[in-house]
Structure formats: structure tokens, C-alpha cells
Amino acid sequence: MKSVFKKIWFLAKPYLNTRQNEVHTEISTEFAFKLITPEDGEEDIVIPAIILHDVGWHKVPVNLQLMVFGPKATKPELNRMHEVEGVKITKKILEKINYDKNKTAQIIKIIEGHDSRKKAISVNDMIVKDADKLWRYSKSGFYIDIERFDETFDEGLNRLRKNISNWFFTNTAGEMAAEMIKKREKEKVS
Q1: Which of 21, 47, 86, 142 suits 69 as a labelling partner, its CA being 20 to 30 A distant?
Q2: Which of the two residues, 17 and 97, has the higher pLDDT score?
């Protein structure tokens, strides 16, 4: 990882101490790296955006977080709060390291709608959105989510299966998700 990305990670880390965001961001960043080349993305936009995309959750009260996302969300409108707060934190972090202003503007545009905006605004946005959602299919993401959503193994797997076609923008991410579902299926204990 480039040293500038390490600096961004270091500055983002204090904001990732909620909602299991540190492990989520680490795994999502790994997925982003895997998507950049086949999808022709820009590393200097995608990697900072994926590292910083959920820093705004730090400002959402913990007692409200599970009401905001997931299959049983009752207050999904509060999801915007983490995007708006994330933009403020991202600006502060990228200004602190004197990150390129044009790239910063693109990163902020991605973060300000990474969950709420249903259409992607660029290839880089597609990659960030896909890397973010691929986490759900990873071993860690799957088991964290079924526990926090109070789902059975089968309910969690069915949620993932039914959303492949409408969650992903890139073919690469869809293929990766399908492969991870096969891995999860093999983990089921009878």
C-alpha cells in the first residue's frame, strides 16, 4: 500500500471504532484493490474513498445505528447522516495531508452518496460501491451481519443471494460475490 494511503488509514482509524467499521474498511479496501485493474479504476481516487467512506458513522449515535441499515432498518433516512458527516471528516483528513484538490473533490463526491445514491457517477464510484457491498459476502462480514441482524445462517445467505443482481455495478464484483456465496454454503454446519 502506498505511504499516502497508510497516512489516510492512520488518520481515519479513530473514526472507524464503531459498527465494526475497522474490519469492514480493511476488507472493503482489499476488495477495492482487486476491482481497480479489471474495472479500469483510479487507485488514487478509489482507495482513499473506500478507506474514508464510513468515517461518518462515528457521528451517528450507537443506539440508532442498527435502526439505520440492514434488513430490519426502521430509520433508513438517517443513513444520510453518516454520508454528510463523512464528507466533513474526509475533507479535514485530506486537507491535513495536502491531498490533490481535484482528487479530493472526486473522493468527496463519491462519499457523499456512496449509500444513498442509487446510480453510480463514475467507474470509481462503482468500484467503491461494489467493494463496500462485497464485504457482506466475506467470511467476516457474513458472520458479523447475521449476528447483528439476528438472522439464521440460511436467512443471511438468502439475503445475499437475492441481492447479487441489484447490489453490484461491475461484473467482476458480481462474480466475486457469487464465488463467496459458494464458500459460505460450504461452511454451513448441519
Answers
A1: 47
A2: 97
Tally of domains within the chain:
1
Percentages helix, strand, coil for the chain, rounded to the nearest 5? 75, 0, 25
* Closest C-alpha to 70, from 167, 176, 148, 154: 148
Distance (Å, whole) CA 162 – CA 26 = 25
- Of the candidates 19, 183, 12, the one whose C-alpha atom is nearest the C-alpha of residue 29 is 12
User: Any idea what the CATH number is for the domain that residue 59 is in?
Assistant: 1.10.3210.10
Residue 72, helix vs strand vs coil: coil
3-class secondary structure, 99: coil
Helix 43-52 × helix 101-111 angle, to 10°: 50
- Residue 40 — left, alpha, or beta (φ > 0 → left; ψ -120 to 50 → alpha)? left
- Is the separation of the CB atoms in 42 and 124 below 8 Å? yes
Measured from the Cβ of residue 183, the count of other Cβ atoms closer than 10 Å reads 12
Q: Where are the beta strands (DSSP E) in the chain?
A: none
pLDDT digits (tens, 9 = 90+) for 50-61: 999 999 988 877
CA distance 94 to 142: 31
- Say which residue, 76 or 14, is predicted with more confidence: 14
DSSP 8-class letter at 17: -
Identity at 160, one-letter amino acid code: L
Amino acid type, 168? F
